Amino acid sequence: MSGKATPQNEETQKIVTKYDRKVQRRKEEEARAKREKQISRIIGIAILVVIVGALLYSPIRKFVAAHSTYITVGNHKISEVEFDYYYALASNDYLDTYGEYLSYLGLNIYGSFENQAYSDTMSWKDYFDQLAVEAIKQNKALLDEAKAAGFTYDPSAERDAFIQDSKEAAAEAGVTLGRYYRETFGQYATASNIKPFIEEGYIASAYYRAVAESKEAGEAEIRAYYEEHTATYDSVDYLLTQIDAEIPEAQTTTDADGNEVTTEPTEEEIQAAMDAAKEQADEALLVIEEEGTENIGRLQSGVSTYYRDWLYDDARKEGDTTVIEDSNNHRYYVLMFERRYLDESLITANVRAIMTFSDNGEAILAEWEALGATEEAFTSLVPKYSLDTYSSNSGGLYEDLNHSSLNSDTLNDWVFAVERKAGDTVTVTEQGITYVLYYISQGRPEWQASIANTLLSDAMDEYMTEIQEKCEVSDPKGRLVYLKTPEPTVADDTGAADGTAVENETE
């Protein structure tokens, strides 16, 4: 791991050389005779300590890392081994999520994170330290709440699967399991000393799911939220014609000295082009009903900001038309409003899924058929084959999948096919991942599922913020640099280190 072990005191690391002994003898000769024996004895002890320290450095350091307090989170004493474990999970998850973008930020994922700047005040190691601490706070807060609520959960199945995955990964990498743990979870990690952290993580996740289930919104709450945010969930149908002004192109000429000179169009030329475009737009308005481009079922988030407010004005009625100027892009939009409505036709789907890196989908389905070809049989195969830890605890269940949930057109078309019925299965392998799906039923309308997810997310964010306030972080030895520096100027979740956000406008 990139986290460094705490350095030992320099005295115990120093090796006594011949030169050191020569200097020491000279000092002894200058000292009074009555202290020579005592000094010689002290030197002998010092040399002995260095020798013994060198022999015992590794096991002692490992013991210290596993049993001494590295930082404190709430009432929990966090060892260096535990911190390294969370650091590994947090940093690896971040790198897996944003890896393809990080090179654009100048991050060398194979280099030392400690020596690469994340912001003006933090290195990438500092940032990953922060992510690790936040993960520790979340888990410890959930564990405290679970204990207070009398919640119990047996994580042995997930733990055993975790260990088995580790063994397979080590074998695939051609290293021993011990080395795999050290290189993956920290230099002092072993199968035994990280076992409690693995189990605690699954218990915390189970309690989080239990709390989330208790906070799911009912139909009345969903409907009330919709009434307050109708524009967000309503769809609109409209006709659109776009008229682009014909701005003169920049002209490049050569002056008397042979230098190229580029002349941009003047403001007068631009205005003349815009005036001509406005005339075309006014003419297009007369035939918008016959020649406009049909836009059906557009949500507010998918409508251009230049005419979004006009379309979603509560006063808008069928047949309304307008011409809207876009001076930034030198164009006009000609529109006719048709209708605004809550789309009840888009229905979500409930499925169970197994995801593996092996092309064994047909073999899994064959085993499922041998077990009786029931939903229960499919559920029983999820922990055996699926690598998807998100859904494995619930038998691979995915509820309220919408038309944009799946990253595969093939799977999307299969799930939402008109003829789809309960009990249907499919296996598809794409980009090295095999998906085995079991179709359960239709879910709620997409708008209801979207609101339910929003309300649940808000409720869980509030809950997590509240319980984590009890888990203050104490770092008396100053190991966490980010706690001593101002907030970095990094704004978003994509790792953009300059704090700039890119706003994508959908036309």
Provide the low-confidence segments as ranges.
Answer: 1-28, 31-57, 491-507
Beta strand count: 13
The whole-number mean of residue pLDDT values reads: 84
Sequence of strands across the biggest β-sheet: 6-3-8-7
Keywords:
single chain, 507 residues, alpha+beta, four-stranded antiparallel beta sheet, disordered N terminus, disordered C terminus
Describe the 3D structure.
The chain has helices at 10-13, 18-30, 36-67, 80-102, 124-148, 156-173, 177-185, 195-214, 219-228, 230-233, 267-286, 288-291, 308-311, 361-370, 375-385, 389-392, 409-415, 446-468; strands at 71-73, 76-78, 235-244, 251-254, 260-263, 293-299, 321-326, 331-341, 347-356, 397-401, 425-430, 433-445, 473-474. It is α+β, with helices and mostly antiparallel strands and 507 residues long. The longest helix has 32 residues, at 36-67. The two termini are 45 Å apart. Helix 4 (80-102) packs across helix 5 and helix 5 (124-148) crosses helix 8. The strands form four sheets. It has a four-stranded antiparallel sheet with strand order 6-3-8-7. A four-stranded antiparallel sheet has the order 10-9-12-11, with helices on both faces. The relative contact order is 0.11.
Question: In a few lines, what is going on in this structure?
Answer:
This protein is α+β, with helices and mostly antiparallel strands and 507 residues long.
Topology at a glance:
Layout: H1 10-13, H2 18-30, H3 36-67, E1 71-73, E2 76-78, H4 80-102, H5 124-148, H6 156-173, H7 177-185, H8 195-214, H9 219-228, H10 230-233, E3 235-244, E4 251-254, E5 260-263, H11 267-286, H12 288-291, E6 293-299, H13 308-311, E7 321-326, E8 331-341, E9 347-356, H14 361-370, H15 375-385, H16 389-392, E10 397-401, H17 409-415, E11 425-430, E12 433-445, H18 446-468, E13 473-474
Antiparallel strand pairs: 1-2, 1-13, 3-6, 3-8, 4-5, 7-8, 9-10, 9-12, 11-12
Helix pairs in contact: 4-5, 5-8, 6-7, 6-8, 9-18, 14-15
